[in-house]
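Input record (one chain):
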Amino acid sequence: MTLTVWPYIKNQGIWTIPDQVIIGVWDKMCELDRVKTTWWDASIVTQEDFIKFMQDPYIFPTIIVDRDEVRFKVFAWLSDFNDGVARAHFCYLDKYDFDVGKMMVNFWQKLGTLNVIIGTIPESYKTALKFVERLGFQVVGTIPNICNMVYLNRREGGVISYYLMEE
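The corresponding structure, as predicted from the sequence alone:
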């Protein structure tokens, strides 16, 4: 397995990942029925929304791919950058894999611009919560009703966690 971290940025007017690959990520999320669980607030619902989101200058999306098997492993992104802090988000496009998750966190750490990353995960997402704790995120608590679970027609608590970017 040869894993590659592939950030999606515009470099000299050209996106670093071809459009067909970005569409492939969207298609994989749809195939795995992960769109509604990733954007539980219904902020992204179409391929067009996704592409617009990916190209938002305030979002730093990254994909990890297995080049040997030619398969997506994870799609992750940072948002809400402010004074060395950013919010982290992820969607696995394969099974949860500790090494892939650690590779993503290490990539963010090597950027050298972040002190802390923060996450909010709906409290019903037990597998994701266990996974981020295993990666080294520290849970600080749950904020009641912060997650608008549009597709479930309810609000629920969001578990807040953080990761200190210490070398």
